[in-house]
């Protein structure tokens, strides 16, 4: 199914995009500090967590070369700022669980909707837009987990994360095409849905479960 390209595409305000990149980069740096990595490790994890989703979106799916996050120096400066903040204020940042959680949920929704919208703007199908939106939202976290040799968080049963991004993309795409809602309003709803799903999952204990439980081997006779 091909979705008509919304008129007046949603543009993520640069200050919100940079703020989301800052918090994601800081979370990557904190992961590096927990692993007792050196300066290079901190910078690499900050970079891939802060900008990895956008780089996957532009380089792997949309073939946008060079990626906008590489053309604007403010993105790299924001990653460095997030890494520095985590390195110098790690103990204080660990106490700010609620602000980090809210910022992470907001970034999840923003990146999901932006990825979906950029895909629609190229005339690609709605299912492709949903895929790219989810990758844009969770790609940085997956790259971070792979680099530290941990099972990616989004693959394990637990709190809604990729599922929240899917819900936000679905709301945005449904409102943009069949219902012809203005793109800004559709984007706001999509971000709100993803953010709310993530926060409610954490606060109310909503969890995903394994699709299939491990089967116990029958004792040999």
Q: In words, what does this structure look like?
A:
The protein is an all-alpha fold and 221 residues long. The chain has one domain. It is 70% helix and 0% strand. It has nine helices and no strands. The protein is globular. Mean pLDDT is 87; it is low at 1-7.
Which structural traits does this protein have?
221 residues; mainly alpha; 9 helices
Show the helix and strand layout.
Layout: H1 14-34, H2 39-61, H3 68-71, H4 73-88, H5 90-95, H6 97-121, H7 126-147, H8 162-176, H9 183-204
Our Rg estimate from Cα atoms comes to 18 Å
- Identify low-pLDDT runs: 1-7
Figure out the total of helices: 9
**N-to-C SSE string, H for helix and E for strand:** HHHHHHHHH
Class per helix and strand makeup: mainly alpha
Q: How many extended strands?
A: 0
Distance between the termini: 55 Å
Strand content: under 5%
The main pleated sheet reads as: none
Average pLDDT number:
87
């Amino acid at each position: 199914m091909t979705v008509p390209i919304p008129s007046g595409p949603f543009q993520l305000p640069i200050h919100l995009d940079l703020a989301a990149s800052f918090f994601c980069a800081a979370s990557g740096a904190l992961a590096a500090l927990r692993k007792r990595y050196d300066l290079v490790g901190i910078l690499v994890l900050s970079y891939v967590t802060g900008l990895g989703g956008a780089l996957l979106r532009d380089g792997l799916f949309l073939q946008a070369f060079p990626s906008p996050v590489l053309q604007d120096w403010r993105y790299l400066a924001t990653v460095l700022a997030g890494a520095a903040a985590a390195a110098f204020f790690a103990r204080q940042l660990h106490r700010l669980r609620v602000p980090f959680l809210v910022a992470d949920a907001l970034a999840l929704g923003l990146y999901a909707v932006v990825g979906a919208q950029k895909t629609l703007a190229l005339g690609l199908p709605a299912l492709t837009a949903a895929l790219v939106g989810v990758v844009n939202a969770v790609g940085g976290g997956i790259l971070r987990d792979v680099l530290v040799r941990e099972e990616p968080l989004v693959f394990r049963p637990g709190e809604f994360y990729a599922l929240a991004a899917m819900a936000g993309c679905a709301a945005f795409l449904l409102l943009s095409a069949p219902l012809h809602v203005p793109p800004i309003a559709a984007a706001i709803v999509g971000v709100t849905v993803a953010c709310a799903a993530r926060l409610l999952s954490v606060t109310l204990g909503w969890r995903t479960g394994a699709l299939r439980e491990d089967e116990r081997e029958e004792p040999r006779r």
